[in-house]
Amino acid sequence: MSFVSKLIKRQSPLLGIDLTCTSAKLLELSRSGNRYRVENYAVAPFSPNAVIEQDIKDAEEVSSAIRAAVNISKAKASHAVIAMYNASVITNVIQMPNNFSDEELEGYVEIEANKFIPYSLDEVNLDFATIGASAQKEEFSDILVVASRRDHVEKRVDAVEDAGLTVDVVDVELYAVERCFTLISHKIPNHNENTLVAVVDIGATMTTLTILQGGKAIYNNSEVLGGRQLTEEIMQRYDLSYAKAGYAKKTGDLPEDYHSAVLEPFKGVLSQQISRLLQFFYSSGQHNKVDHILLAGGCVSINGLVDSLQEQLGIPTMVSDPFADMIISPSVNVTALNNDAPALFVACGLAMRGLQNA
Ligand SMILES: Nc1ncnc2c1ncn2[C@@H]1O[C@H](COP(=O)(O)OP(=O)(O)OP(=O)(O)O)[C@@H](O)[C@H]1O
Ligand SMILES: [Mg+2]
Question: For residue 14, how far is its CA from the centre of ligand 1 (angstroms)?
């Protein structure tokens, strides 16, 4: 399973498929000169209980959403790259003597992995890649080891393969975020190897914080909180169905007291949670302030959210648009893509991985 290892040479790009708590997000990229080109994309929703806290509960529904996404997008590729969510993955960097052969390396990684993986190795998918010379030990290399429980991996792979696709690569959400950030780093003022950027992805049910230092992920954490909570508050207060509340949230077609009684308090809750996530990060290491916040996820479209977070958190905040410098194929609906762009952050990082070695 190639969480991190190099890919074998392949003929065509892979589809990036991000299975979130609410939808299957599919993105197909290609390369045009030194630019990326968006070929096809689609977002196909699940019902609210198909995936709960990132765990697939209704595999059939997830598969049919993936099938729908393939049909709507008219994607050509039939091979895909998907991601494991961060909490289901264990990563560690180990040191290995430089003079080991490939076979010795494999045995060594297994022995070392046994020390930090709380499951039997028979139950996990294990992958590793050499990062480079170790700064800690002379004549040793740093090896990144990534593991995830096999049943968790298989559940995701099966959901995609039951939709008629083949999964070639299982990536990790965190690495997809890192990769997508490479498209955006030049927009961050004075970005350099020390710059701390907090990528805050506010989705429907999860808010995920990824801290990047000079573009490398050094920390991640998430909380169960997102736009669904706002939808539920609208349902209760105005006695609307889930679908109607979700629609009204986007159009803003709600009674006069909506802003003061529902929207502003919700923004306050979001800002408190993000502040809490940042505090956890600060207390875990030697940093006490991030330089920038980069927002991703569907909730960035909430009216006034960006300014309100920037003001409450006191950190320069911007919204991510992974496609800003890309060519968009004429068959793609540009308005819809622009609306969905911040929510396609992970899907974009996956589709970029799908272009490596193609
Ligand atoms: N224009 C908009 N105004 C307000 N909320 C919006 C708008 N567009 C999308 N959203 C909200 O964004 C959320 C979906 O975001 P996103 O697609 O990033 O979530 P997800 O990745 O599917 O879920 P999760 O991250 O929880 O797994 C939903 O709650 C949706 O209602
Ligand atoms: Mg999400």
Answer: 25
